[in-house]
DNA sequence: CCCATGACCTGTTTGC
DNA sequence: TGCAAACAGGTCATGG
């Protein structure tokens, strides 16, 4: 289940093995994997041909690859709706990627056998002998091509402008996050998973950060003090950096880096997936509770539920 | 606007 | 043994 650390590992792999290369051809094997590209598979493939890939970027769980070399080509322009409205000089293009639940971006030797769930193949116009593959069992993830926000130095795709900065972004505003928490009438885990408040946190790292902070997942955000928010953010950053240092968390073969290798953070998890195992602080068995069609893992002693 | 919930998707595990 | 239900859960549309 790729969250920020896993996506960052993939970004680094793309940076090393894909950035700077020019696309020769794209094959779309499953339409659902390009569903966010509303102009369809043929348009996606045709417009990528000949483009050069720039530096790989990430915000939260989203990845993107700025591309250059094509003509003016927003989706609306390509559809012929209003080709004169958007001057091509004010914006760029980027390939947006989201791994969803089970998506993988793999750099494979050309001619390696196709994976069972190969959805998209990108061939390059060079002699390096490798290609980029998007493999995705559950098809929650996908690729698409978008205009970038005019003037944005990071070439942010316009369709993810609503996604908040992530806690490892130097420009993340801790004070603004605290103020937003105080305004919300919701509970802390919901807020941590809300990608418009803070991005990159999913079910695993939310439970880990809450365990480290000794906070129950249903604590109302309106009860948070500035120091409590600061401590929580510190634990979010610590656990993500620790995971990043060992290549992320791999529960099964569904999360791997671009070279197909797993991460090793699973063995360091304190709460997630540890139902009935002793809390590493106090020895009380960790509990699992159904929560929002998924699970929350917590220590019933260290993380007391809020009153009421 | 704010917040909560269901739909989407497939392979594996669990239970009767 | 076989089948069904539960489970994994990120994002977005929708409805209160």
Automatic annotation (TrEMBL):
MF terms (GO), sorted A to Z: 8-oxo-7,8-dihydroguanine DNA N-glycosylase activity; class I DNA-(apurinic or apyrimidinic site) endonuclease activity; damaged DNA binding; double-stranded DNA binding; zinc ion binding
InterPro entries found in the cross-reference section: DNA_glyclase_Znf_dom_DNA_BS, FPG_cat, FPG_Glyclase, FPG_N, H2TH_FPG, Ribosomal_uS13-like_H2TH, Znf_DNA_glyclase/AP_lyase
Query: Which residues bind DNA per the record?
Result: 117, 138, 184
Which terms under GO biological process does the entry name? base-excision repair; response to oxidative stress
Q: Which reaction does it catalyse?
A: Hydrolysis of DNA containing ring-opened 7-methylguanine residues, releasing 2,6-diamino-4-hydroxy-5-(N-methyl)formamidopyrimidine; 2'-deoxyribonucleotide-(2'-deoxyribose 5'-phosphate)-2'-deoxyribonucleotide-DNA = a 3'-end 2'-deoxyribonucleotide-(2,3-dehydro-2,3-deoxyribose 5'-phosphate)-DNA + a 5'-end 5'-phospho-2'-deoxyribonucleoside-DNA + H(+)
**Where are the active-site residues found?**
2-3, 61, 294
Cofactor binding comment, as recorded:
Binds 1 zinc ion per subunit.
What Pfam families does the annotation carry?
Answer: Fapy_DNA_glyco (PF01149), H2TH (PF06831)
Boundaries of each Formamidopyrimidine-DNA glycosylase catalytic domain copy? Answer: 2-141
- Enzyme Commission no: 3.2.2.23, 4.2.99.18
What is the similarity comment for this entry? Belongs to the FPG family.
Outline what the protein does.
Involved in base excision repair of DNA damaged by oxidation or by mutagenic agents. Acts as DNA glycosylase that recognizes and removes damaged bases. Has a preference for oxidized purines, such as 7,8-dihydro-8-oxoguanine (8-oxoG). Has AP (apurinic/apyrimidinic) lyase activity and introduces nicks in the DNA strand. Cleaves the DNA backbone by beta-delta elimination to generate a single-strand break at the site of the removed base with both 3'- and 5'-phosphates.
Which named protein is this? Formamidopyrimidine-DNA glycosylase
Gene expressing this chain = mutM
């Amino acid at each position: 289940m790729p969250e920020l650390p896993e996506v960052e590992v993939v970004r680094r792999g793309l940076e090393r093995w894909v950035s700077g290369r020019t696309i020769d051809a794209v094959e779309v094997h499953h339409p659902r994997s390009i569903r966010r590209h509303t102009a369809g598979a043929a348009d996606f493939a045709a417009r990528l041909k000949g483009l050069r890939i720039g530096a790989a970027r990430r915000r939260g769980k989203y990845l993107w690859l700025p591309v250059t070399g094509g003509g003016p080509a927003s989706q609306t322009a390509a559809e012929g709706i209003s080709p004169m409205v958007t001057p091509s000089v004010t914006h760029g293009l980027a390939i947006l990627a989201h791994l969803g639940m089970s998506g993988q971006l793999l750099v494979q030797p050309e001619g390696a056998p196709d994976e069972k769930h190969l959805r998209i193949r990108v061939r390059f116009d060079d002699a390096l002998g490798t290609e980029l593959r998007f493999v995705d069992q559950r098809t929650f993830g996908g690729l698409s091509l978008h205009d970038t926000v005019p003037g944005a130095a990071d070439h942010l795709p316009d369709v993810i402008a609503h996604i908040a900065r992530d806690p490892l972004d130097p420009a993340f505003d801790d004070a603004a996050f605290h103020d937003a928490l105080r305004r919300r009438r919701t509970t802390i885990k919901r807020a941590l998973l809300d990608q418009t408040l803070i991005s990159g946190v999913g079910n695993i790292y939310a439970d880990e950060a809450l365990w480290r902070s000794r906070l129950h997942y249903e604590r109302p955000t309106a009860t948070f003090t500035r120091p409590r928010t600061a401590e929580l953010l510190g634990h979010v950053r610590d656990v993500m950096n620790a995971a990043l240092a060992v290549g992320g968390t791999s529960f099964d073969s569904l999360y791997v880096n671009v070279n197909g290798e797993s991460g090793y953070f699973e063995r360091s998890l304190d709460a997630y997936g540890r139902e009935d195992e002793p809390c590493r602080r106090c020895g009380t068995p960790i509990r699992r509770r159904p929560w929002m069609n998924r699970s929350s893992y917590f220590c019933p002693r260290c993380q007391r539920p809020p009153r009421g």
